[in-house]
């Protein structure tokens, strides 16, 4: 790839010896760095490496315990997020922070003061005109009058970027901006980011998807355990050297190598544990039939919006089924209650751990035992949970999944994203299902965490369970799946098994459906 | 799997104190209790009758129906729902029981059982509408509450129904009763205490209680964990009906009448108590011990102000201010995190 490295201009933002402590954790440890205008800088690191805290400090949402910020050579003091906005720093967070009921224009101009008529009434025509300008710079097909909540995730992110443009931001920080975007949308996003760079903006791009870092950025900053461990031109790095910076140890394996070294082959010759026939659901699932065998890991590939999540939700009974049968261990299960599917031995680890997976204000312990509480009673017939039995179970899972938490009473809200995901996995391992459906379990999870999740799936298969694994990173499917089904518009359009499971083959099926 | 480098550096246990005394932290954590103790101290200094034991016993008796109502609300609030019909159910059921006994010569037991069935029915109806038909709880229960209060008015042309001659002594004992020989507390206090223990066991110690808090935390995650969210939310409204019956019997028994009253001040008092209770808990969750504390708080303030000779209006203003104060203390902590 050709990367156009512009002449580094005078530093725009300087972060000088910044340290931030939380009770018991050194989140940012003496970090010094400079960001120059007209550059795209990748910021990478594992969950809990300190990226988010550093960004929050620059955004004025957290205050550093030590250290200073400088903007264009002037000391920058941030008392609250609004100060950062005024200084020309814009942030697009992973969790969209727009106001869904308000129009695009109202969101773009939010906090900047709406134009007025007679000093009192909002001048709507002027507001829409003002908002249309940054949107057109992004070449986005978005009507400023539309409520933001009705836009796609990709367009909502563009609205957030447009807000930054309307602020005349000098620095734009994008935190995992490609999550839940289709490939085309990602291409558009990249084009937008490059154009902003060419206009002289400094762009910080945070992502766990390393391919994107290599495609887009000119410089990479790596954080580990709160420290800045590498700050190098992207061109001087390759995938494996970047991974070793991130993890702190030497290992980097391609998906195909992983597949070969683990001896992943075709599906085992065993009985089917999950059988789905003629499944239809009004969420856009059409005539899906497949089975998963004991000890098999089945991958579900497809583009964003191909209906994979909808299909497994209908299988689990999270959404209503119109037609079709689902059998677990040969026994048919009704389609209306997750609890019925669970007692048959089926588990769904949902896509969004925050809104569907965890009770964020419950402790790690109470989340882990939530789906199996009736096995942690003080006496078998007395429906009172025994905290001793719960603690034992939770501590066991915390140890085996190496969930980074100070103790089992910690609120899940306070854990990092990857550890929150592990808590969801722990809940379902504790529940003891035979067929486990993992829907995008590695989103927002760092390199080591991903590897741990693959290991967990492989262990489950080896124990004689059946695993269904949904991922939008096809390399992951190649690394662990015996067999991959590819979906498109709610239908199963392709099947690959054994040696045929390769990334190009999955991509080929995805894109040959038009 | 081995422990990886992803574990953040920890200095001992998380939550270990930073050494210095954190005054704001203490105020926010114990804001409600500090305000309560402050109020008690002030009233005691102002008037030494405030801590007379007989007066306290009377206060506890008067607060018992409020506690019963607040306990019912705690269950629905913990699941993220509101029930504004609780005093409507109480008022309608109270009138019903009194009319059955006074006008129709029913036995007190039969009247209470029928009243209980009515309350459970009304609560379940709310539950069906909110949980199964998916209507918003706030406006739905406001509507059913209005219907019940209106029905109560029409059933007696808007008048109080008195029955001091016709209500049997055994029924009237539910309102005051002979004090027990040990603590010399009246019957309603013991009933309220029993219900509080029952609800505390339910909410804090049973699987059902855990599931209820899970629903309050994230209903979708709870549903996907196999919890029957609809049934438990409906059960919460039924529990409200159950509590309303006890409040109805104790109040009508004490005054030997069913008072024609919208019940709104009682409703607001019960909500205030439940919210005070949540504010007093570490994770600001609605919880039974907190609700008990909230009821005691409100009753103590009321009693102190009555002893000082203040009118109803002034007492409401003072209670409102104290509520704001307690909430403000709690927010101080929340906004700092």
Strand order of the largest sheet of chain B: 1-2
CATH architecture field of the largest domain in chain A:
3-Layer(aba) Sandwich
Q: How many alpha or pi helices of chain B?
A: 14
Query: CATH topology of chain B, anyone?
Result: ABC transporter involved in vitamin B12 uptake, BtuC
Residue share in β-strands of chain A: 25-35%
The best one-word shape of chain A is: globular
CATH superfamily of the largest domain in chain A: P-loop containing nucleotide triphosphate hydrolases
Oligomer: heterodimer
Provide an overview of this structure:
- The complex is a heterodimer of chains A (514) and B (337).
- Chain A has 4 domains: 11-88 and 170-252, P-loop containing nucleotide triphosphate hydrolases (Rossmann fold, 3-Layer(aba) Sandwich), CATH 3.40.50.300; 99-169, no CATH class; 253-345 and 433-514, Rossmann fold; 357-432, no CATH class.
- In chain A, 34% of the residues lie in helices and 26% in strands.
- Chain A has a 6-stranded mixed β-sheet, with helices on both faces.
- In chain A, α4 (124-137) packs across α5 (153-166), α9 packs parallel to α17 (474-480) and α14 (387-400) packs across α15 (417-431).
- Chain A is globular, with a radius of gyration of 24 Å.
- By secondary structure, chain B is mainly α.
- Chain B has helices spanning 23-29, 31-46, 53-78, 86-104, 108-132, 137-155, 169-172, 187-205, 207-217, 219-224, 229-255, 264-279, 288-307, 312-336, and strands spanning 161-162, 257-258.
- In chain B, strands 1-2 form a two-stranded antiparallel sheet.
- In chain B, α3 packs across α13 and α12 crosses α13.
- The model of chain B is unreliable at 1-19 (pLDDT under 50).
């Amino acid at each position: 790839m050709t990367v156009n490295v512009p002449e580094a201009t005078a530093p725009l933002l300087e972060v000088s010896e910044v340290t931030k402590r939380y009770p018991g954790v050194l989140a940012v440890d003496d970090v010094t760095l400079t960001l120059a205008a007209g550059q795209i800088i990748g910021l990478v690191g594992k969950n809990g490496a300190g990226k988010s805290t550093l960004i929050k400090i620059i955004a004025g949402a957290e205050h550093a315990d030590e250290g200073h910020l400088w903007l264009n050579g002037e000391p920058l003091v941030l008392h609250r997020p609004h100060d950062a906005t005024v200084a020309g720093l814009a942030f697009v967070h992973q969790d969209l922070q727009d106001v869904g009921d308000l129009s695009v224009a109202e969101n773009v101009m939010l906090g900047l003061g709406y134009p007025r008529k007679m000093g009192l009434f909002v001048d709507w025509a002027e507001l829409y005109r003002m908002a249309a300008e940054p949107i057109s710079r992004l070449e986005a097909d978005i009507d400023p009058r539309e409520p933001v909540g009705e836009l796609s995730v990709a367009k909502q992110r563009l609205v957030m970027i447009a807000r930054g443009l309307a602020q005349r931001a000098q620095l734009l920080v994008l935190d995992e901006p490609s999550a839940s975007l289709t490939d085309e949308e990602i291409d558009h996003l990249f084009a937008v980011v490059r154009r902003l760079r060419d206009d002289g903006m400094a762009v910080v791009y945070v992502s766990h998807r390393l391919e994107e870092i290599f495609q887009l950025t000119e410089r990479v900053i790596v954080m580990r355990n709160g420290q800045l461990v590498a700050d190098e031109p992207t061109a001087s790095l390759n995938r494996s050297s970047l991974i070793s910076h991130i993890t702190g140890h030497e290992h980097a394996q391609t998906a195909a190598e992983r597949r070969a070294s683990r001896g992943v082959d075709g599906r085992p010759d065993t009985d089917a544990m999950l059988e789905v026939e003629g499944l239809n659901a009004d969420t856009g699932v059409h005539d899906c039939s497949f089975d998963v065998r004991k000890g098999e890991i089945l991958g579900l590939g497809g583009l964003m919006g191909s209906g994979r999540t909808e299909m497994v939700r209908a299988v689990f009974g999270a959404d209503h089924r119109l037609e079709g049968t689902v059998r677990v261990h040969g026994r048919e299960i009704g389609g209306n209650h997750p609890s019925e599917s669970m007692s048959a031995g089926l588990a769904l680890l949902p896509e969004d751990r925050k809104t569907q997976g965890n009770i964020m204000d419950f402790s790690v312990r109470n989340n882990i035992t939530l789906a199996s509480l009736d096995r942690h009673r003080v006496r078998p017939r007395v429906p009172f949970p025994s905290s001793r039995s719960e603690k034992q179970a939770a501590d066991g899972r915390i140890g085996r999944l190496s969930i980074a938490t100070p103790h089992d009473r910690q609120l899940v809200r306070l854990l990092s994203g990857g550890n929150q995901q592990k808590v969801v996995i722990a809940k379902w391992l504790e529940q003891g299902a035979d067929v486990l459906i993992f829907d995008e379990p590695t989103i927002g999870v760092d390199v080591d965490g991903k590897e741990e999740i693959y290991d967990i799936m492989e262990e489950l298969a080896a124990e004689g369970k059946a695993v269904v694994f949904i991922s939008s990173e096809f390399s992951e499917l190649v690394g662990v799946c015996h067999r991959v089904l590819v979906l498109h518009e709610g239908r199963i359009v392709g099947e690959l098994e054994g040696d045929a499971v390769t990334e190009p083959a999955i991509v080929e099926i995805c894109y040959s459906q038009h | 799997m081995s422990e990886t480098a992803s574990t953040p550096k920890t200095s001992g246990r998380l939550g270990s104190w930073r050494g210095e005394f954190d005054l704001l932290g203490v105020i926010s954590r114990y804001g409600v209790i500090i305000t309560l103790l402050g109020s008690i101290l002030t009233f005691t200094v102002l008037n030494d009758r405030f801590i007379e034991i007989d007066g306290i016993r009377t206060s506890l008796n008067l607060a018992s129906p409020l506690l019963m109502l607040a306990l019912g609300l705690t269950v629905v609030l913990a699941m993220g729902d509101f029930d504004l019909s609780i005093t409507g159910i109480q008022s309608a059921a109270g009138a019903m029981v009194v009319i059955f006994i006074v006008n129709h010569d029913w036995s007190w037991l039969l009247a209470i059982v029928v009243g209980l069935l009515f309350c459970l029915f009304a609560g379940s109806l709310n539950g069906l509408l909110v949980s199964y038909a998916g209507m918003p709880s706030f406006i739905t229960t406001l509507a059913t509450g209005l219907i019940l209060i209106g029905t109560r008015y029409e059933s007696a042309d808007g008048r109080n129904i008195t029955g001091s001659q016709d209500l049997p002594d055994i029924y009237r004992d539910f309102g005051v009763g002979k004090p027990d020989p040990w603590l010399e507390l009246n019957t309603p206090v013991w009933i309220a205490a029993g219900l509080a223990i029952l609800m505390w066991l339910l909410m804090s110690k049973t699987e059902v209680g855990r599931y209820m808090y899970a629903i309050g935390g994230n209903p979708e995650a709870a549903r996907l964990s196999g919890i029957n969210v609809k049934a438990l939310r409906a059960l919460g409204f039924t529990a409200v009906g159950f509590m309303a019956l006890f409040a109805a019997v104790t109040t009508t028994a004490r005054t030997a009448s069913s008072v024609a009253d919208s019940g709104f001040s009682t409703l607001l008092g019960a909500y205030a108590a439940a919210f005070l209770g949540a504010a007093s808990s570490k994770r600001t969750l609605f919880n039974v011990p907190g609700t008990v504390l909230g009821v005691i708080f409100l009753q103590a303030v009321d009693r102190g102000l009555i002893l000082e000779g203040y009118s109803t209006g002034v007492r409401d203003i003072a209670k409102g201010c104290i509520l704001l104060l307690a909430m403000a203390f709690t927010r101080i902590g929340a906004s700092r995190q």
